[in-house]
Amino acid sequence: MEYSVRNKKVLDKKRGARIGIMIYNILKSIVPNDALVLDIGCSSGIVSEYLAERFGSVVGIDIDQSSIKIAKRTKEANLKFLFMDATNLKFEDCTFDLVILSQVHYYFKNQKKLFDGVYRVLKPGGAVFLSGTNKHRMIKPFEPVPTYYKSFWELKKLLNKFEVNYQTKEVVGKNFPLLKLVPRQLFNMFEPLSPNFVWVLMKK
């Protein structure tokens, strides 16, 4: 699959930097500075490179060979890119402090296998950054490859091994300031209808 060839947005450095900033701002008080990070679906490595400047080291994986070829041009010593299927992770148990799943889980048909593997390689007390599109979103982004979107409740069921911390309100609120006035409990009632989800998962 050559996703980077079909979808040029993954090569947009400004877009990647915005995503990296958002991820880091959410996690900087949760994950240690020397964290070992796994970036699943790293694509051309823009977000991985941003995170490598702020955490201990980053391993980016993808099944898009064209993207990995681009990503490997980086010269960062604490950053490594591998061609790897995320449903068959070639890492030891409890290896990573943080796993990034930014707008990527819905490309996997077998998401249970994906999340089981992530749980296995995550250290106890480790975190997962998860963002994605709601199955019930009325207008979905164009995708040049098959997608398997999940609803709020379907996703929550798949993640029953994790403690889920909802960050959607904080992220969406930056673009829609009026949301900051909405009480957390009220927003939580309507989050299943949100077009996108942003969650931080913790390994119990």
> Which percent bin holds the helix content?
25-40%
| Residue share in β-strands | 15-25%
Mean pLDDT: 91
Q: CATH first level: which class?
A: Alpha Beta
The helix/strand class is alpha/beta
Distance between the termini: 34 Å
CATH architecture: 3-Layer(aba) Sandwich
Overall description:
With 204 residues, the chain is α/β, with parallel strands linked by helices. It has one domain: Vaccinia Virus protein VP39 (Rossmann fold). It is 31% helix and 24% strand. The protein is built from 8 helices and 7 strands. It has helices at 3-6, 13-27, 46-52, 65-71, 111-121, 152-158, 168-173, 184-190, and strands spanning 36-40, 57-62, 79-83, 96-102, 122-133, 162-166, 196-203. Strands 3-2-1-4-5-7-6 form a 7-stranded mixed sheet. The longest helix is centred in the N-terminal third of the chain and has 15 residues, at 13-27. It starts with a helix and ends with a strand. 35% of the residues are buried.
In short:
The protein has 204 residues and is α/β, with parallel strands linked by helices.
Question: Would you spell out the secondary-structure blueprint of this structure?
Answer:
Elements: H1 3-6, H2 13-27, E1 36-40, H3 46-52, E2 57-62, H4 65-71, E3 79-83, E4 96-102, H5 111-121, E5 122-133, H6 152-158, E6 162-166, H7 168-173, H8 184-190, E7 196-203
Parallel strand pairs: 1-2, 1-4, 2-3, 4-5
Antiparallel strand pairs: 5-7, 6-7
Helix pairs in contact: 2-3
Which features does this protein show?
8 helices, 31% helix, seven-stranded mixed sheet, globular, Rossmann fold, alpha/beta, 204 residues
